[in-house]
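About this split. The held-out portion is used to measure sequence recovery: a designer receives only the structure tokens and must propose an amino acid at every position. Recovery is the fraction of positions where the proposal matches the reference. Here is one held-out target exactly as it appears in the evaluation file.
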């Protein structure tokens, strides 16, 4: 495993811990995200909060990017890598482009709304003036299993 791959796994584990908080603390869909600077510092982190905050934009990625923007005092998050447990949707992908995030690493693919290659490929579209490097499938089975268990429990009426 290369140093980059090792760092990707380490940060994805952190994002999975955040995903667990979404489910445990807020009964939200368990998606977590952590935004890391080029030198390895946490700039922002978050988990899904759209139900709790009555905010359709409060996805884990957006929460992490908002926190990072406030911390840096800038809407540009240059050189950063966003680790997220689920492939970003179109809204989150476009926010990453506008923020000039360098790289996104995600866990589970989203075959219904994924915008990093599964359904749409917004991050690589050459019509944008910025493209985000994408690396998917990091701890994808673990992330996917967490989501499957959450939705299975919701359908059965039992806690996950």
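Reference sequence for scoring:
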């Amino acid at each position: 495993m290369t140093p980059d791959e090792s760092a990707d796994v380490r940060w994805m584990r952190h994002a999975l811990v955040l995903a667990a908080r979404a489910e445990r603390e807020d009964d939200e869909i368990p998606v977590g995200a952590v935004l890391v600077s080029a030198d390895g510092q946490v700039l922002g982190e978050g988990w899904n909060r759209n139900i709790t905050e009555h905010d359709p934009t409060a996805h884990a990625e957006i929460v992490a990017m908002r926190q990072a923007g406030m911390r840096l005092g800038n809407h540009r998050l240059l050189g950063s890598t966003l680790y997220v447990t689920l492939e970003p949707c179109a809204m989150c992908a476009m926010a990453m482009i506008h923020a000039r995030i360098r790289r996104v690493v995600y866990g589970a693919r989203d075959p219904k709304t994924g915008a990093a290659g599964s359904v749409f490929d917004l991050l690589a579209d050459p019509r944008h003036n910025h493209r985000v490097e994408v690396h998917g499938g990091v701890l994808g089975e673990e992330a996917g299993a967490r989501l499957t268990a959450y939705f299975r429990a919701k359908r059965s009426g039992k806690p996950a």
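Annotator remark: The longest strand covers residues 42-47.
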